[in-house]
Amino acid sequence: MKKSEKKGPLVAIACGGSGGHFYPGIAVAQKLYSAGCEILLIVTEKEIDQVASAQIREFRVERMPAVGLTSRNVLPFFLRFIKSYLKARKLFRKLQPRAVLGMGGFSSAPTVLAAPAGKCKAFIHEGNSIPGRANRLVAPFVHTGFVHFPQSVSRLHMRRVDVVGMPVRANFSPSNEEMSRGCKMMLGLDPDRPVLLAMGGSQGARALNSLVLASLKKILRRIPDLQIIHLTGQKDFESVQKGYQDSGVQAMVREYFAEMDLVMGAATVMVSRAGASSLAETARMRIPSILIPLPTAADNHQYYNALAFEETGAAILFEQPESPIQEAAADDFADVVSSLLTNEKKRLAICHALAEWGERDAATEIAKKMIEVALPQENLNMDWSTEPVV
After folding, report:
1. Residue 385 pLDDT more than 60?
2. Which candidate, 286, 357, 361, 359, places its Cα nearest to that of 27?
3. pTM confidence score
4. Torsion of CA 369, 371, 374, 377, to 10 degrees
5. If we measure between CA atoms, which residue out of 122, 101, 103 comes closest to residue 19?
6. Domains in the chain, start-ordered, CATH in brackets?
7. How far is CA 69 from CA 65, 107, 112, 131, 133, in A?
8. Are the C-beta atoms of residues 15 and 108 closer than 8 Å to each other?
């Protein structure tokens, strides 16, 4: 899609720090762009943001030095937070965006707090059932909050909170048998054999990788024709690849896969963390999943995300065992994976439950609300049928 020669109103979207913030932000940006808005993406200096944003040509991209808060970096965190805030204030005074959307995380908080400098409306989106500290901090200063889980509403102290779901890019759509076969063939896999997809999110997950490898032989004894796609993250790629080689098991092992809709579309069953963004993509594509929440996630929010899905029959929750992985834990995990792979009735029930989570178009709802509040006089052309631009 070509950009209009007429410059539209500018909207800033702060979505850096992880794929779970970046890609939902891109989904909203696509909708706003199709309506005639100019987009300013604000990301961090982390490598994952640079790799992801390097593919974008339609949007302006600015980097902020903000980092997440840990017990080991309190002073650098505050220094970078202030530096990011001052940079955002200066940027907003110069560019004068009409609206700012923060997708969560402390990389977006200074940007949202700088919104008054540009005299623009501020919005936030909270993807987790337990709101993050950054969104709790900025909530009193924004016009409207958008949330994925209904459980989040009472935990954000603000007057206007809309339950909209999680924004998902337009290339994610419900999978079916024909689509699954096509995805398998595009990946060079046998379209008639089942596929297990294991992934730990945009930055990988060592414990999840280890658990899959430890249970591999028992799963394959039950399902010898199983095909495996394993997305490891950068740090564990070599060790996981060696683990498959040492086991004599062929698998598609990658650090990362840009076309996630393709690998997810090929999956019969998926094993993943319980980040809000990946859950929303799973729900949109109707992929039966075994969720292994990250136990060290802030406020244990991944556990509560996974629990919300399990309680509605939309996933299976499997808590991360202690490290190193014991044989009993690997056996239990192998039983759960094998059972789901061989039980079509159970997979169909999960897919039916996922439809309830994946039916809303959160990106459209957020874009419409932002335009209604911040750009009521612009008379923008809301063409929601437009194909993705990035």
Report:
1. no
2. 361
3. 0.85
4. -130
5. 103
6. 10-165+360-374 (3.40.50.2000), 177-358 (3.40.50.2000)
7. 13, 10, 17, 15, 10
8. yes
Interval 218-271: pLDDT, tens = 999 999 999 999 999 888 999 999 999 999 999 999 998 888 999 999 999 999
Residue 15 to residue 4: CA distance in whole angstroms: 24
* Residue given tokens 């999960």 in the structure block: 350
The CA distance from 351 to 284, in Å, is 10
pLDDT tier for residue 2 given thresholds of 50, 70 and 90: very low
Report long-range pairs for 299-305 (Cβ below 8 Å, ≥24 apart). 299/130, 299/132, 299/133, 300/130, 301/128, 301/129, 301/130, 301/132, 302/128, 302/273, 302/274, 302/275, 303/274, 304/128, 304/129, 304/130, 304/151, 305/128, 305/129, 305/149, 305/274, 305/275, 305/276, 305/279
C-beta separation of 292 from 320 below 8 A: yes
* Cβ atoms of residues 247 and 213 within 8 Å: yes
pLDDT tens-digit readout, 72-117: 888 999 999 999 999 999 999 999 999 999 999 888 999 999 999 8
Kindly tell me the burial class for residue 229, based on how many C-beta atoms sit within 10 Å of its own C-beta (0-12, 13-18, 19 or more).
Answer: buried
Query: What token pair was written down for 167?
Result: 């924004």
Q: Is 25 exposed, middle or buried (0-12, 13-18, 19+ CB in 10 A)?
A: buried
Q: Which two tokens mark 155? A: 């935990």
Q: What are phi and psi of 271, to 5 degrees?
A: -115, 125
